[in-house]
Amino acid sequence: MTAENRTQDSLLMRIEKVERENRGLKIAGSIALLGVAGALFLGLSAPPSKTIEAELVIIRDTTGKARIILGVGDEGPALTLLDKDGKLRVNLGVDKDGPALDLLDRAESPRAQLLITDDQGPRLNFFDAKGSQVSLRP
């Protein structure tokens, strides 16, 4: 082997070593570039909406029982609160006659009611255990 061949072999080995190192740098650079691009795309995503739209919302407790129902029916919007046994205890709604708040006992019987109607104005109704009504008007 001549000196010229040894020099060529040495140069060839050095070039191959540089090419191997270059490949590693290219791979590392590509990964870094993908990471930066991903971070930029995450930063450009739309902010979360502060609005929830639904026709009916049911909020359940940790046992899965419905405790709050918010919805809009044919008569208008209503917010219903249920006790731990799932019994209707409070109903707040607005219908064609006006707003109303109903308070119910454990048997789901109305015990107190506040109404405001266009024709009769404000009214506070109380009911005894038998369902007899006493109304108060200003």
List the SSEs and their pairings.
Layout: H1 3-44, E1 56-60, E2 66-72, E3 77-82, E4 88-95, E5 98-104, E6 110-117, E7 121-127, E8 133-136
Antiparallel strand pairs: 1-2, 2-3, 3-4, 4-5, 5-6, 6-7, 7-8
Any overview of this molecule?
This protein has 138 residues and is α+β, with helices and mostly antiparallel strands. The protein has two domains: 1-45; 56-136, Outer Surface Protein A, domain 3 (Alpha-Beta Complex). Helix content is 30%, strand content 38%. It has one helix at residues 3-44; strands at 56-60, 66-72, 77-82, 88-95, 98-104, 110-117, 121-127, 133-136. An eight-stranded antiparallel β-sheet has the order 1-2-3-4-5-6-7-8, with no helix packed on it. The longest helix is centred in the first third of the chain and has 42 residues, at 3-44. 1% of the residues are buried. The model has no long low-confidence stretch (mean pLDDT 85).
